[in-house]
């Protein structure tokens, strides 16, 4: 079979993996195909956490032993260690399959490359690296989780060409187009958590849910960073505290907000994570640690600008999604996406790597992993509120 034919089948496996978008955390999304005589005869995609992996589901879907010469296509290298569902390499070997085609290598240090070694040692032909980049990109959150032991903290910004997110008057809706905003909801559906600051909640009263055409509204964990609990003071409470998903809301705060307000939130069914802090701001390192303890593999920060800037200043931002509209203000008093640094040379800037580009009509998305400079100069005069 040619390389082009392998890619066609791997794209179909990728489609299966995308079909379980956001449902498998903290496990990866994986798709698998069983092919006999050039025809797909069975398919599988990773079940929710604790359920069977894609390879086992594809073999089960066949309902009988594969024919001689059958090939298994899988978007990620099969696991080779005994977990809750058993090693996928064991199931593949037992099935009698003699050829496996893989996409991405499993980044788990316990599996990395070992699954393919086990299969080859059993006499199975293994072809690796088919659409490897696309297969790896599918599991950004898992890849970070399994290699770092903690959640991926990602940020989203929607800006003009000159990096502004609002006019000097505060007018900001909408800088980007409807297609870009729909893509944001796609990523909301992937991340287990969404985070905003108190001012964003007070100003915009967002629902922080994923609302996509043809799908039921989905609510991840909704984090509100509010060190002084200003969102609880007014009698007209925001939607995230009162709607049908309020039990999915977590307020991230400090003792400076007052224990009375903490009790009020908990009485309403709102979870509160209260971190010790000398200031009104929660240390993102403490937040990251708590997310890891709760097995929340990724959080998508949507603002405001102060919250995102603090993520950068504290070197805690792992990934950035930047949507840009074909518009600029040329106004130094318009509101910028980021602030609080003062680089004096290009090598002191924050850079994205493993960059991917997508277009949404006239808008453009640039996304990539954040790499901080060895020396990062902080503007100590930069203050603000979330």
Give an overview of the whole structure.
There is one protein chain. The chain is an alpha/beta fold. Helix content is 28%, strand content 24%. It contains 12 helices and 16 strands. It has helices spanning 3-18, 54-62, 88-95, 114-121, 132-137, 140-148, 178-190, 198-204, 239-242, 259-267, 284-293, 305-313; strands at 31-36, 39-45, 71-76, 99-104, 125-127, 152-159, 164-166, 193-197, 221-225, 249-253, 271-274, 298-303, 319-324, 335-336, 351-360, 363-371. A 9-stranded mixed beta sheet has the order 11-10-9-8-12-6-13-16-15, sandwiched between helices. A 5-stranded mixed beta sheet has the order 2-1-3-4-5, with helices on both faces. Helix 3 (88-95) packs parallel to helix 4. The longest helix has 16 residues, at 3-18. The protein is globular, with a radius of gyration of 23 Å.
């Amino acid at each position: 079979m040619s390389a082009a034919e392998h890619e066609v089948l791997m794209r179909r496996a990728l489609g299966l993996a995308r079909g379980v978008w956001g449902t498998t955390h903290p496990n990866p999304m994986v798709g698998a195909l069983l092919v006999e005589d050039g025809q797909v005869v069975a398919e599988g995609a990773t079940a929710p956490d604790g359920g069977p992996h894609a390879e086992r589901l594809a073999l089960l879907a066949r309902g009988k032993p594969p024919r001689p010469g059958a090939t298994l296509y899988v978007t990620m290298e099969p696991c080779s260690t005994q977990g809750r569902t058993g090693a996928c390499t064991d199931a593949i070997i037992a099935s009698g399959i003699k050829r496996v085609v893989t996409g991405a290598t499993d980044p788990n240090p316990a599996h990395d490359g070992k699954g393919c070694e086990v299969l080859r040692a059993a006499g199975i032909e293994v072809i690796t690296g088919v659409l490897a980049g696309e297969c790896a990109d599918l599991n950004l959150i898992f890849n970070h989780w399994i290699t770092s032991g903690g959640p991926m903290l990602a940020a989203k910004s929607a800006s003009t060409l000159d990096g502004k997110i609002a006019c000097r008057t505060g007018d900001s809706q909408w800088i980007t187009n409807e297609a870009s905003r729909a893509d944001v909801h796609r990523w909301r559906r992937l991340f287990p958590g969404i985070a905003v600051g108190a001012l964003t909640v007070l100003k915009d009263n967002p629902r922080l849910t994923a609302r996509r055409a043809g799908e039921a509204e989905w609510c991840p964990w909704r984090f509100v960073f509010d060190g002084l609990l200003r969102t609880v003071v007014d009698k007209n409470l925001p939607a995230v505290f009162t709607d049908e998903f309020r039990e999915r809301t977590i307020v991230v705060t400090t003792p400076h907000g007052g224990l009375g307000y903490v009790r009020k939130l908990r009485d309403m069914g709102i979870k509160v994570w209260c971190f010790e802090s000398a200031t009104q701001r929660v240390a993102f390192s403490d937040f990251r640690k708590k997310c890891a303890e709760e097995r929340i593999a990724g959080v998508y920060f949507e603002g405001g600008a102060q919250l995102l800037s603090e993520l950068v200043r504290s070197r805690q931002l792992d990934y950035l999604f930047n949507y840009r509209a074909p518009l600029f203000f040329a106004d130094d008093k318009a509101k910028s996406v980021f602030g609080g640094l003062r680089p004096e040379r290009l090598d002191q800037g924050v850079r994205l790597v493993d960059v991917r580009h997508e277009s949404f009509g006239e808008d453009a998305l640039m996304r990539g992993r954040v790499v901080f400079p060895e020396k990062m100069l902080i503007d100590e005069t930069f203050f603000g509120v979330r």
